[in-house]
Design goal:
The structure is a single chain. The chain has one domain: Metallo-beta-lactamase, Chain A (4-Layer Sandwich), CATH 3.60.15.30. Helices cover 18% and strands 26% of the residues. The chain contains 6 helices and 16 strands. The strands form 4 sheets. A 5-stranded mixed beta sheet has the order 1-2-3-4-5, with helices on one face. A 5-stranded mixed beta sheet has the order 8-9-10-11-13. The chain is globular. The chain starts with 6 loop residues before the first strand and ends in a 14-residue tail after the last strand.
Length: 288
C-alpha cells in the first residue's frame, strides 16, 4: 500500500507543512493562544482532520488566493479569511468561466504525479460543497497567535488580484502562496501590477530567510524545500525586462478551455507566464 494520507513536515518550531499528495501544500502555524492555517489544499483530503490533530488551540484559516488548489477543503470550516479582491472568484454566478476553471484545478494538479506516487484514486477528487463566510484580510492585517508570534499580511496582486503573502517573524519564513515562485503565472493582472507586489516583498527581504510557496514536494517529488535562492530577484528581473522591452516571451498554449494562449519567458531558475497585451493597464501608474 502506498501513502494515503498527506505528509506532515515540521519545517520550524510549531510550524507544519501539510503536503496534499504533491498537489498543494498547506501550512499550520501554532502560537500559545491561537493557530493559523494557511490555505486548505485541493480537497483531495479533509485537511481539517490534520489541522485539528496538530493544533490544540483555536485557529483561523486564511487563503493566500482564490484558486482551487488552495481552497479545496474550505467548506470544512464556517469562515475563512481572503483578500476582498478575490471574493468574486468564489461567486459561481459572477463568472461561469472562472467557476468552471477553478473547479477543474484539483484534477489538473493531480495529473502531475499524484496517482503515480500516492495510493489515491481519481474518485477522491472533489470541489467544495459550499463557500464559507468570507472574512476580509487586507494589507496590514495581523494574526496574533500569542506568545509574541504575530503574522503580517501583505497584498501582492499578480497571480490573482487578491493574492497575499504572510510574514512570520517568529520563524523568519515568508509564506508566499503563488506570489513568488519558480513557475509564476501573471495572467490575472498586468505585469506592472505584479511587479508592484514583488517590490513589496523585496522591500522586506531582510525579514525572512526562507520562502515557502504553496507547492512543495510537488508531483511525485520526495524533495520538500523552500524556494531556491534568487527566485525573488529573478522574478523582478523578468517583470522589469518585459516592461522595458528588453525581454520578449514565446507564445504557448492556454491552460484551460476558454482562455487565450499564455506567453512565457525564463531567466535563471524562474519561468513567468503572462499576456503580452497586459504589460501595463490603461491609466495604471508605472511600478518604478
Amino acid at each position: 500500500m502506498g501513502v494515503s494520507k498527506p505528509e506532515v513536515l515540521e519545517i520550524a518550531r510549531n510550524t507544519y507543512a501539510i503536503n496534499e499528495f504533491g498537489m498543494a501544500t498547506c501550512f499550520l502555524l501554532v502560537g500559545s493562544e491561537r493557530g493559523l492555517l494557511i490555505d486548505t489544499g485541493c480537497g483531495m483530503y479533509n485537511i481539517r482532520e490534520i489541522a485539528d490533530e496538530l493544533c490544540k488551540v483555536p485557529y483561523d484559516v486564511v487563503l493566500t488566493h482564490a484558486h482551487g488548489d488552495h481552497f479545496g477543503s474550505m467548506d470544512k470550516w464556517d469562515e475563512v479569511y481572503l483578500h476582498p479582491d478575490d471574493f468574486d472568484l468564489l461567486a459561481p454566478d459572477k463568472d461561469e468561466l472562472n467557476h468552471a476553471k477553478y473547479a477543474m484545478y484539483p484534477g489538473m494538479m493531480a495529473k502531475f504525479g499524484t496517482f503515480d506516487a500516492y495510493d489515491i484514486v481519481p474518485e477522491q477528487l472533489r470541489y467544495p460543497e459550499k463557500t464559507p463566510r468570507l472574512l476580509p484580510c487586507e494589507e496590514g492585517y495581523v494574526f496574533d497567535l500569542g506568545g509574541g508570534r504575530k503574522v503580517d499580511v501583505v497584498h501582492t496582486p499578480g497571480h490573482t488580484p487578491g493574492e497575499i503573502v504572510l510574514f512570520d517573524p517568529y520563524t523568519r519564513i515568508l509564506f508566499s502562496g503563488d506570489a513568488c515562485n519558480v513557475n509564476l503565472g501573471l495572467t490575472a493582472t498586468s505585469v506592472n501590477t505584479a511587479l508592484k507586489g514583488l517590490l513589496k516583498i523585496k522591500a522586506r527581504e531582510n525579514e525572512f530567510d526562507r520562502n515557502f510557496n504553496g507547492h512543495i514536494g510537488y508531483g511525485g517529488s520526495t524533495v520538500h524545500r523552500s524556494m531556491p535562492e534568487g527566485v525573488l530577484d529573478n522574478c523582478l528581473y523578468i517583470c522589469r525586462g518585459l516592461l522595458s522591452g528588453m525581454l520578449t516571451g514565446t507564445e504557448g498554449q492556454a491552460i484551460v478551455p476558454g482562455e487565450k494562449p499564455r506567453w512565457s519567458v525564463r531567466h535563471g531558475n524562474v519561468r513567468i507566464s503572462y499576456y503580452p497585451w497586459r504589460l501595463i493597464d490603461d491609466g495604471e501608474e508605472p511600478a518604478e
